[in-house]
Design a protein that fits this description.
The protein is mainly alpha-helical and 228 residues long. The protein has two domains: 6-113, Orthogonal Bundle (DNA polymerase, domain 1); 123-226, no CATH class. The protein contains nine helices and three strands; from the N terminus they run ααααααααβββα. The protein has a three-stranded antiparallel sheet, with no helix packed on it. α4 packs parallel to α6, α5 packs antiparallel against α6 (95-107) and α8 crosses α9. InterPro entries: Integrase_recombinase_N (IPR010998), Phage_Integrase-like_Recomb (IPR052925). This is Tyr recombinase domain-containing protein. It comes from Botryobasidium botryosum (strain FD-172 SS1).
Length: 228
């Protein structure tokens, strides 16, 4: 392999996992587990699992179809593909056939695996929630601040929250110091929150909003405690 040393190869091994976020790698793990269980049951040899053949991949999708949602199966396939890429193994699955199989699996999604459409949040709902909270309580204030910022900033809730406290990382999660209120030359205020990292913007991006006075009262009352 030319003049590449073992250390050079280790650098590559250390680099590639960073192509996916930690949460994405964790979710892909479920797909890989199911893939290997499937291959074990079918007595598929290790060397036939990667690179995977088109017929084997389609058989895997067919086995899952009707039992899992199309979205889950698609995520499993993304994990298997990422596993190939991570280890430098060609992914030779024809796109038309693969896409058709995933489309069919989505059509066979069991009814219990489909989430019913929910009513959208409105200012009235937020106001009702506010009536049940005590903003002098740290937990209530944090919940309301998160709700109002996500609502008026039109952001994904996952970008403003952490699944577990121990997972908090100031390098990628929002901190009080990431929020500010700026005023332009005409006296109009805008709330700005910097998200250190998102899937679409690894370098981070600003979320900002300005709304009618009533809306801003909700936001700022929720954020007041958050900023302390």
């Amino acid at each position: 392999m030319g003049n590449l040393s073992a250390e050079d190869l280790e650098l590559i091994d250390g680099l590639m996992p960073h192509a996916w976020t930690q949460s994405t790698r964790e979710s892909y793990g479920a797909g890989l587990l199911n893939w290997h269980v499937f291959c074990d049951e079918k007595e598929v040899a290790e060397e036939q699992r990667a690179p995977a053949s088109s017929i084997l991949v389609t058989s895997f999708i067919a086995m899952l179809a009707g039992c899992y949602s199309g979205k889950t199966i698609s995520n499993y396939m993304s994990g298997i593909r990422a596993w190939h890429i991570l280890h430098g193994i060609p992914w030779n699955i024809p796109s038309p056939e693969h896409d058709a199989a995933l489309k069919a699996a989505d059509a066979l999604t069991p009814s219990q695996a489909r989430r019913e459409k929910r009513q959208p949040f409105t200012v009235e709902i937020i106001s009702a929630i506010r009536g049940q909270l005590n903003l002098e309580d740290n937990l209530d204030a944090a919940v309301f601040a998160c709700l109002t910022m996500a609502f008026y900033g039109i952001v994904r809730v996952g970008e403003f929250t952490v699944k577990r406290i121990r997972d908090f990382d100031p390098a990628i999660h929002i901190k009080p110091s990431n929020m500010q209120i700026v005023t332009d030359e005409r006296g109009f205020s805008t709330t700005v929150v910097f998200i250190p990292r998102t899937k679409s913007a690894p370098e981070g991006e600003d979320v900002y909003w300005a709304g009618p006075p009533k809306a801003l009262i909700y936001v700022r009352s929720g954020n007041q405690k958050f900023r302390r």
